[in-house]
Each structure stands twice: as C-alpha cells, then as structure tokens.
C-alpha cells in the first residue's frame, strides 16, 4: 500500500511552501503541514489544511511529502531526523524534495529514501511566492519513472510547467544551481548598473525603460529594478537566499576545481549586503549597498510602499 | 547653407557602418563613405555609394556625417585630424557620432564641433550588423533640438527606434555604457554558467531550453548560447569589442571612485580570452576559455558552421 493518495504532507510553510499547500488544497488534497513558525501553522489551518507538530506527524500515512525547507541540512533533518518524514510515510510513498541543494546531497538523500522503501523526486522549484500560491510554479525535476508517476498528481497541482530532466536524482538540482548562478549574477549586475547610472546622473526610470528594450536586459533586471525605482526593499526574495544559493555554487566550484569569477564576485556582493544589515531584505538591496558606499541617493519609498 | 540634405557621409565601414550606409542608400541618400579597408570601400561602391579616400573627401559639402569607427580616439582623428570631417562638412551640418565612448569624450567633441559651426548628436547604436543593414537599429541619442532636427532624416533611415534622452551631449553615451556593462556581464555569466553546467554533466541543449524559460535568462544568454551549442565562434560581435567597452566602463569607475566588482570580473574574463588568442573571435569565446582551463569539451562546429 502507498497510503491514501489524497493525503499529502508539506514540510516548510514559508512563502513558497504555504503557497504550494494552498494549491494542493484547492486541487482537493488533504494537506497536513509542519513548520517551526506558529504563524505559518495557523495560516495553513486557516487555508483548510491540518497543522502538525512534527514532520513525522504531518507525514503519517501520506502518499507524498513535499519538502520546501531552506537547504540540504534542514531537508536531511526533516526527512531522516527525530520524528522525521521518512519513517512516517506510507511504504512506497514519494518524497518531492524542493529545497535548492548541491546535487550530491540530493543523491545521498535519494539513497537513504530508497533504503527506507520510498521514492524520491529531485524537484527544485522556481517562480516565486505568487506562482506558488496560484499553482503555476516551474519544477526542474529528475528521478526514476516510478517517482515521477507517484508525484504526478502533486506536480499537476503546484506547477504550470514540469521539466522532466532525466532518471537520475541530482540533475534537477544541477539545473536549479545553474539557474541560481545566473539569477544571482544578474541581480548583482542590475544593482551595480543602476547605481552606476545614478553616478552618471541619468534618469533611472528612463534607464529602466531603455535597457529593458536593449541587449543589456535580463529577466532579473526587469523583475528587480522596479523595487529600486520604488525604493521598496520588503523581501519578495531575500538577500540571504542568494548568499545561500551562490554559496552552494561556490562550494561545488571549489569541490571540482572549477573557477567561477563572475559568480564569486556576485556572492561577495550579497555577503557585503548581508553584512551591512540587509540579509532579510529584498535581494535588490545590493543597490542600497552600492549607494551607501558611494554616497549616492536612490529613490525613496513612495507613500504606498513606505 | 547646410549643404545638400541628400548628401550624407559615413566614416567607418565595418559591419555596422556598411549596414547603415546601405540603409541610407535605400532611403534615397547620396552616400559617400570612407574606411581604411579597401574591401570595405569596394563594398560601399558595390552597394551604390561613393568611396572616398579620406574622411574629408567623404564629408565634402555633406549635410550630415555618421561616424561609426571603433572608439573615441578614432572618432577624434576622423573628425578633427588631417583631412578630417569637421573642416569639410557644409556649415551647420550635423555630426552623428555613433562609436561607444566615455560621455566626457562626447562632450569634448561636441564643443569642438560647435566651435566649427557644426551640430553634434551623441548617438550610440545597438542592434548588431543585421539590424544595421535593415535600417532597424536602436539609437540612444542626446543633443540639442537643432541637432535632432538636422539628423532626423538620417535617423529615420537607419533606426527602428530612437531614444531621445535629453538635450545634453554625453547622456546618449552614458546610456550606451550602462547597456554595455550589463551586456558584457551577461555574456561572461552565460559562458561561465554553460561550462559549469558541462562540468555537472548536463545536456547543454536542455540547459539552454530550461534557462531561457526561467528567471536566470537574459537577452545575451538567449542570443549567444546558440553560438556555444553550435560550436560557431565566427565573430558576430568580437571579444575585442568588450575588452574595449568594459575598459571604458572601468575607466569611468576609476575616474569617479565607483567600485564595479561585477563588471571588472567580466572585463578580466574578456581580457583572458583575448590573451588566449581569441580577441577577434565571437564574444561567446569566453566559454572556450573556461573549457580550455577546465579541460572540458564543448560542442564541436557542425558541418554547416565549420
């Protein structure tokens, strides 16, 4: 038996996990969830889910568990630690592992899951909190055909697009890591360029307009520069996400003697921004770091966003 | 008098200048052009233009001169050097200056032009050789209303879009410089990410497909990665363009104590790629540099492109 296929656990109820839980509830699943934050647990209960005190209680008898915690260490703890998910899931259930992590860690967890009689899908996500809530995430997934089959109803509920990247766990994580390398560099470059433009006394709104129509544009430039123009650094995605993700990129590079000068420069900028007290602010805060250093003034928050 | 308004000189007949000359000829202008290369001069003659031996002869009596040489030093030489454009143009004619340069250089040339009784439009271009040939460039222009008015027929013939960025010469150049900062960083990041993906043993064609649908994408990623996938490093835009343009970015940063860690990392990569013998190859050759350093193999040229 593989448990009741309508029972799904979601462990980690941050902005992404909670959004995914809502999408699953809307799709008719019985969702039980777990998070250290009381506020997050209440939000799940308010959305029609069941808040559990431990990962194990959330996963008890479920056919699938979606793990949306911050990193590999937390994923390992909630899966295989005390009161963990793996020991509680129904035999043959599938773990959908969505935290960004090094591919080697994903492989290690998949082997442990297999030893426990469980399926494992390496399934990092992208798209942000809004798309998590609307069930329109992008999933970069790899794993055995059985794992895909078992996870399919869950994927259908949370994702607009599932990239099926191969049968080996680790590929999904590798794709996500490459994406994060680019995303992090593009955010840091956007911030560097916008404050540099300010130093040249340019009209920043005009710079945004011209660059987004030119060869210098990027998805991140288009998405993050409006935060700078509005002076709104409330965290849609925090600086700490990129110190973490570019940290993983850096670890992998060092592990295989692969030089990453551009990604490393970006990592150092996110670290400097975090060190300046902005770790929990929006990642466009790298622009505020440049402005602080150079004594330039960026747009102040409008009344709406202040 | 301002010369015959149908007489336009184009100085610098590289892939951009020649394309712009063709667009002007197609729009009915009498185009005389000048370039050090005999091949380029013949190509202009073949396209219906008139090849001249010096910038001055090309500009003699023209109402407008488009300067599309490599940098500020060349622009200064063809405008104000021996047999230069400025002394040959009709009084009140307009100089359309399209080489990428520091805004301070543009201002200096505009002052010299004004002293010679000429109008000056600071008008860097973007879009590549194909759009130059089809008359669909993007122009980032600034200058006095009189200069815009005088240059309008020329701009209409060469550009799909003219950003009118203000009355002060230097603003157009500043916008172009900000665009080049981002473009250069994005190319270097795309190359770093693609070879890093190779080190993770990923299918590069699949990486291109997934990233272009994700938050990690950029205009340059979409445009340059196909060169890597096809193993085709024939120069659509050469490495030397970015050692030059990021060099200007770096000079400006140093001149005003503005730190540019991301742009500097990218500049060093383009310099390393040039030092490795690829200065005249396509700028996606930064990927070949990473591959050489790490001993990884990138796609070989297909028969079509070899």
From TrEMBL, chains A, B:
Catalyzed reactions per annotation: L-threonate + NAD(+) = 2-dehydro-L-erythronate + NADH + H(+)
Q: Which InterPro entries match?
A: 3-OH-isobutyrate_DH-rel_CS, 6-PGluconate_DH-like_C_sf, 6PGD_dom2, 6PGDH_NADP-bd, HIBADH-like_NADP-bd, HIBADH-related, LtnD, NAD(P)-bd_dom_sf
Q: Name one GO biological process term.
A: organic acid catabolic process
- Could you name the domain of life of the organism this protein comes from? Bacteria
Q: 3-hydroxyisobutyrate dehydrogenase-like NAD-binding domain: from which residue to which, for each copy?
A: 170-290
Q: Could you tell me which Pfam families the record lists for this protein?
A: NAD_binding_11 (PF14833), NAD_binding_2 (PF03446)
Task: State any single GO MF term.
Answer: oxidoreductase activity, acting on the CH-OH group of donors, NAD or NADP as acceptor
- Name the protein family: Belongs to the HIBADH-related family. L-threonate dehydrogenase subfamily.
The family database entries (PANTHER family) matched by this protein are listed as:
3-HYDROXYISOBUTYRATE DEHYDROGENASE-LIKE 1, MITOCHONDRIAL-RELATED, L-THREONATE DEHYDROGENASE
Q: What function does this protein fulfil?
A: Catalyzes oxidation of L-threonate to 2-oxo-tetronate. Can use either NAD(+) or NADP(+) as cosubstrate, with a preference for NAD(+).
- Listed name of the protein: L-threonate dehydrogenase
């Amino acid at each position: 038996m593989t448990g009741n296929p309508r029972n799904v656990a979601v462990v980690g109820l941050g902005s992404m996990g909670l959004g995914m839980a809502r999408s699953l509830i809307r799709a008719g699943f019985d969702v039980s969830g777990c998070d250290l934050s009381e506020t997050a647990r209440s939000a799940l209960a308010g959305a029609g889910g069941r808040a559990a005190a431990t990962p194990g209680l959330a996963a008890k008898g479920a056919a699938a568990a979606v793990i949306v915690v911050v990193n590999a260490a937390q994923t390992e703890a909630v899966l295989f630690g005390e009161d963990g998910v793996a020991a509680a899931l129904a035999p043959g259930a599938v773990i959908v592992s969505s935290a960004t992590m090094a591919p080697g860690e994903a492989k290690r967890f998949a082997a442990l899951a297999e030893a426990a009689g469980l399926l494992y899908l390496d399934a990092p996500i992208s798209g942000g909190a809004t798309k998590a809530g609307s069930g329109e995430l992008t999933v970069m997934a790899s794993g055995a055909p059985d794992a895909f089959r078992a996870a399919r109803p869950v994927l259908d509920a949370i994702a607009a697009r599932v990239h099926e990247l191969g049968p080996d766990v680790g590929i999904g994580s590798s794709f996500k890591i490459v994406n994060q390398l680019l995303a992090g560099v593009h955010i840091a470059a956007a911030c560097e360029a916008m404050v540099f433009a300010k130093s040249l006394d340019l009209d920043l709104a005009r710079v945004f307009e011209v660059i987004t129509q030119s060869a210098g544009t990027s998805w991140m430039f288009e998405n993050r520069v409006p935060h700078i123009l509005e002076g709104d650094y409330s965290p849609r995605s925090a600086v700490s996400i990129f110190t973490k993700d570019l940290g993983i990129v850096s670890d992998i590079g060092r592990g295989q003697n692969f030089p990453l000068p551009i990604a490393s420069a970006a990592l150092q900028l996110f670290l400097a921004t975090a060190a300046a007290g902005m770790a929990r602010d929006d990642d466009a805060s790298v622009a505020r770091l440049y402005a602080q250093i150079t004594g330039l003034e960026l747009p102040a928050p409008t009344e709406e966003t202040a």
